[in-house]
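Entry 14. Structure prediction run on the chain below.
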Amino acid sequence: MSIKLKLVGGCICITMATVMVGLLAQSSQQQIGTLAVRIYDDALLSTSALRSAQASMIRLEVGLRLDDAATPPPSSALDADQTAYLSAEVPGILAELATASAGAITPNGKEAVDSVQRALARVKAAQGKLTGRLLLNELRYINAELASTVKIFQSDAYTVRSDVDRLVDKTVERTWLGMAATAVLMIVITSFLIWRIVPSVRRALVVTRSIAARKLDNDIRPRGMGEMAELLSAMSHMQDSISLYLDEAEGRAAMQASAYDGQFNLQNARFEAALNNITQGLCMFDRQQTLVVTNKRFVEMFGEVKLGLSMSKLARLPHLSGLLAPSREVFSTIEIEGGRMIAVSRQSIPSGGSVMTFDDVTDRHRAVERMNHMATHDTLTGLPNRLRLRDLLEETIASGRWRNGGSMLTLDLRGFKFVNDTLGHLVGDDLLRVVGQRLTAMVQPGDFVARIGGDEFAIVQLQPAKQPRAAEALADRIIDMLGKTLEIAHQRINVGVSIGIVAHMPGGAALGDVDADALIKRADLALYSAKEQGRNSYRIFETAMEDAVQQRRRTEIDLSSALERNEFELYFQPFVNVASHRVTGFEALLRWTHPERGPISPAEFIPIAEETGLIEPIGLWVLEQACRQAAGWPLDLCVSVNLSPAQFRSRTLYADVVATLKRSGLKPSRLQLEITESVLLHDTEAILEILKAFRLLGIHIAMDDFGTGYSSLGYLSRFPFDKVKIDQSFVRDLSKRENIAVVRAVVGLSKAMGISVIAEGVETRQQLETLLEEGCHEMQGYHFSRPRPIAELPQFLMTYGSMAQAPAGKARTPNVPMVASFVTV
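Output returned:
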């Protein structure tokens, strides 16, 4: 039988014995409870009822007053009160006797109660016939019977109590016997299990301890067929396996021991070879800080030293001075005599002592210095670059020297790109080097010059209590120097310069919190303003410049959503043929009314739209609206729409124009597209192909601002424009001979090439007459009308048709467009 079955069987036996003892005790307790209930219900209650009846009889006897002294005399019959009293009391006594009879324990008790009941019933039945004496005798008899019955009931109750006592004693006796039997059974089962299990476990434990003590000759003899026999058998096999393994290990250990000495010598040789071939010098100190190991590289770097010297003595040697000084740093770089840079690494040994390595990083350190210099300096001029300039500015501001009186000048060479394109980049590089050298020679000690871009330089000037006069004087000297012809690589070069200045005046008005980025930004803003003035000029930063930038940024943000908010509107300015006194068409001009800032000039937002790319959706909207409006005009009126150079970068421009004409229903011949010469500056052939495609559709093409570019005449020869517009810069002052010459040349050339001419910017009657004399009949300008919203065009046409007058000496045939057919969309 297995150990598991033995333990389970023992537990079952003990459990069953315990259950039997419990059941026996439970049965006895139930019997005792039953007897206790019987004593209460039968003996106690019936006896109480009997005693109550006895007491009632005594009250009855007293209440009837039947003693010898009673009145009337006992020999006479009962009076009416006695009879009534007897009739009232007897039923209650009979009820109590009935209760006692029902609870009688023994037949004798019941018979005694029944006898009393019968006697009392006879008294009740013969109450009208009895005399007082006879009734008294009957009552006394009944009382005697009741007393006898009470004794019988008391005797019966005592008998039941004796039975309960005997039953309790018997139950206690049985319980003790059951507990004793259970204890004996548990002792027997436990002894059996100990006898069957413990010896085998103890033997296995002894064998295990013996094997753990490396004693492998134990006599293990399994007995029986149970688990303990299997355990001892397994331990016997384990002992044999361990013994075999140890024998093999001892054999291998003997073989390894024989080869260990040779391997140790080999490893030692390898260690010495590795130690002497590492690129760092190495030395080791023991826990007493005594030198115990050095390698070949250490000797090469610092010379031969004796082992056994203390670290303090070695530190006093000239060639090791400073390298072995106590330091908390694990790694450090130290410069020794001769300018050599030595990287020193210190590592503590857990058992005590330390290892130090030394690496000559002189070349590496110099290479890093060169790289750092290259990262912060311009490779062409050797000047600090923008990154280094910012660091120098931060240092200047942090030290307080800027607030004592400092300025920053940002310079941009004008014409440098022309030098690169015409003379080559080598000459351009020489020019930059010469400019850098001359700027460096012009500044005072403590100032510094930087090259911050292709042809941009910066100068930080620190002249306490002399700003901004010192900065202006320096700017004048720089303009004078760069305004002269320079001899560069046997070439005579002329360049100019624009300079932006930001200065701090001690005690002057502060420009807010200043940091390096803010100074560079403000200097750039001043430079941008100087560029607008032309070459060889300078501007000092003003807060208005920064406000202008912020205003431009705000305009850019508002412009991005203006189209969605329907803030744009088209105005129209007429083209007037003065010779025939008729309006030939209108130019569509974009207007923007901001909900907070009011009207914003196109000169302000159109360049921003072109730079940000917003001009494409805005230009498409203008084209769409202009075509829709013009579709409802009289048939002899055309509409002219300006196309930005940025719109020609869109691959869908041609398709967009065609789709717009289809949606609006406007004939292509009534649409005129105006372009400027700047459209043709880049990718000319592709743009000319687009213009030719427009011409094939019947769209008219006009060149705007004609005469202001370098190659206007050349473009006329390459593409047959339908119309050219003489720029208003020539019309504004026709009193100048050169302007008259330009107008005359343009009109003559256009007529020779079959191209229409229109002059824009006509504001006076004198300008009108001069243009007529030169042969220009079509005009546009404030003299005729300012740009008007679409709703005012019908009234304008009616007014112009009725009020226009022909020039003196010429007849006029009024030609008023069909205003009735004019429709606004």
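The two ends are 111 Å apart (CA to CA).
Filed with the rest of this week's runs.
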